[in-house]
């Protein structure tokens, strides 16, 4: 039976039920809805709407339902109810008769759904922060497994300057740290309780909204009833955090897919996170990484979809807002899965350090170093840049590295070049010379790694 049948003569069409019913997806809010209902039963008891004994009976029945919800034994499909709120209420009425019918006094599904969904988002923020921590840990561990490895760094996907592998890992650590701080930040804004705001205008009963907020673990009540029932900023913020973090995971996946390619051959991935080809027996494909990249589409899509849904809605609640859930449930779930698999991929990864170093030596990545060397000899940088370019051109013609050219050849281009140029052109030397805060030299990377480990301890 629906919650609103009184003023209707005819029933709903089957197609209307299909477009309107949200129980098939909002059933995941069962435990939040029941906990909200327990808090509400206490609030209306305090307000004198029901007696202590009645409140106790409601609470006992709701606790039993909560247990079933947690065990996954509630039969949603058989109930034929419209949404999770009517499902819980119908279950109460079935058990308690008229007492069950008292619970909804002064409450609306509008403040109810806003409360349930905020609770759900808050709980998932906590889970997702733990997931992010695990990926950060996996990056730090990978950095420590290959603490001295050097690989090419790229701009425009052209070999640019060599970097230490831990420096690459720690770049993603920085991104994920921002993702975690975004969650901490947005969770403060979503930490307000809508319950007691009614359908849109507040309620006439003497409800202690702060007590409800305290009981449900919210910092405070929402301050405007119109806003409280129609605000979905907290979902949007969560979707933006999910999208940004998925973008980070996707870039990491893209780097690793490239590192794993036959052409680069820098890393090997574990069997546990790769798959084979049904046709080509030799193949080992980086599917987990491709899916981390691929799942961005639907997560970004959910953010865009909700922004568009919300943009034209007049105050206060409109049924359009029921569309807030499926995208958010999916986005959060995909983000969670991608963080978990991201950590697994990183744990499974090994670096071919020799091949990385070889690639870092190729591609004239030490040309900037040669220019800096010439600056040290008193040549203006712009001129030094030009000379170094000529040296690269000559080496290309000779099909060798800069450091393989004889001194006579270098001096033919620039007489200021001496024997002392050769150590400068060595890989380790030029990497470790970037000895500045945030740079890829051995010392700043070691310091950054220490910093990341302290961050994890204090997380
Ligand atoms: N299932 C609805 C939703 O998710 C619950 C709120 C319904 N409110 C209403 N006035 N019909 O938005």
Write up this protein:
By secondary structure, the chain is mainly alpha-helical. It has three domains: 19-105, Fumarase C, Chain B, domain 1 (Orthogonal Bundle), CATH 1.10.275.10; 110-205 and 219-358, Fumarase C, Chain A, domain 2; 359-442, Orthogonal Bundle (Ribonucleotide Reductase Protein R1, domain 1). It has 22 helices and six strands. It has a two-stranded antiparallel ribbon with strand order 1-2. Strands 3-4 form a two-stranded parallel sheet. The two termini are 49 Å apart. The relative contact order is 0.10. The site of arginine has 10 residues, from helix 8. It is found in: Cytoplasm. One of its GO terms (molecular function) is argininosuccinate lyase activity. This is Argininosuccinate lyase. Residues 364-431 form the Argininosuccinate lyase C-terminal domain. Its EC number is 4.3.2.1.
The fourth-level CATH homologous superfamily of the largest domain is: Fumarase/aspartase (Central domain)
Succession of helices and strands? HHHHHHHHEEHEHEHHEHHHEHHHHHHH
Q: Helix proportion of residues, in percent?
A: 55-70%
Structural class: mainly alpha
Total domains: 3
Radius of gyration: 30 Å
Strand order of the largest sheet: 1-2
Shape verdict: elongated
CATH fold description of the largest domain: Fumarase C, Chain A, domain 2
What percent strand?
A: under 5%
Mean pLDDT over all positions? 96
| CATH C-level of the largest domain | Mainly Alpha
Total number of helices: 22
Q: Would you identify the CATH architecture of the largest domain?
A: Up-down Bundle
């Amino acid at each position: 039976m629906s919650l609103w049948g009184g003023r209707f003569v005819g029933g709903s069409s089957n197609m209307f039920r299909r477009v309107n019913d949200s129980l098939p997806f909002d059933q995941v809010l069962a435990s939040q809805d029941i906990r909200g209902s327990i808090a509400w039963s206490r609030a209306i008891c305090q307000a004198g709407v029901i007696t202590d004994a009645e409140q106790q009976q409601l609470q006992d029945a709701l606790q039993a339902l909560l247990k079933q919800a947690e065990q996954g034994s509630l039969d949603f499909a058989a109930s034929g109810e419209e949404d999770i709120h009517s499902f819980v209420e119908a279950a109460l009425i079935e058990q308690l008769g008229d007492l069950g019918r008292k619970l909804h006094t002064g409450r609306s599904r509008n403040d109810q759904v806003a409360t349930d969904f905020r609770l759900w988002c808050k709980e998932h923020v906590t889970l997702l922060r733990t997931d992010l921590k695990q990926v950060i840990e996996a990056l730090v561990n990978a950095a420590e497994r290959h603490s001295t490895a050097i690989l090419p760094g790229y701009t425009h996907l052209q070999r640019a300057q060599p970097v230490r592998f831990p420096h690459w890992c720690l770049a993603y650590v920085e991104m994920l740290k921002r993702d975690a701080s975004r969650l901490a930040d947005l969770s403060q804004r979503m930490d307000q309780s809508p319950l007691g705001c009614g359908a849109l205008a507040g309620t006439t009963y003497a409800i202690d909204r702060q007590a409800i907020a305290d009981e449900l673990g919210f910092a405070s009540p929402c301050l405007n009833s119109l806003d409280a029932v129609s605000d979905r900023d907290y979902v949007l913020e969560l979707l933006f955090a999910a999208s940004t973090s998925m973008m980070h995971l996707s870039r990491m996946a893209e780097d690793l897919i490239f590192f794993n390619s036959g052409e680069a051959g820098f890393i090997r991935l574990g069997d546990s996170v790769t798959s084979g080809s049904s046709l080509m027996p030799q193949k080992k494909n980086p599917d987990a990484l491709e899916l981390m990249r691929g799942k961005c589409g639907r997560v970004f899509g959910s953010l865009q979809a909700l922004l568009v849904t919300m943009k034209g809605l007049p105050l206060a609640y409109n049924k359009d807002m029921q569309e807030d859930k499926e995208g958010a449930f999916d986005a959060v779930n995909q983000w969670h899965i991608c963080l978990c698999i991201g950590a697994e991929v990183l744990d499974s990864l090994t670096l071919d350090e020799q091949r990385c170093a070889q690639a870092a030596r190729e591609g004239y990545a030490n040309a900037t170093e040669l220019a800096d060397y010439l600056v040290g000899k008193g040549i203006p940088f712009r001129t030094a840049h030009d000379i170094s370019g000529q040296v690269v051109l000559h080496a290309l013609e000779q099909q060798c590295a800069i450091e393989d050219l004889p001194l006579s050849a270098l001096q033919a281009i620039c007489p200021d070049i001496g024997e002392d140029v050769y150590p400068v052109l060595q890989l380790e030397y030029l990497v470790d010379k970037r000895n500045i805060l945030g740079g890829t030299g051995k010392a700043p990377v070691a310091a950054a790694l220490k910093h990341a480990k302290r961050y994890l301890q204090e997380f």
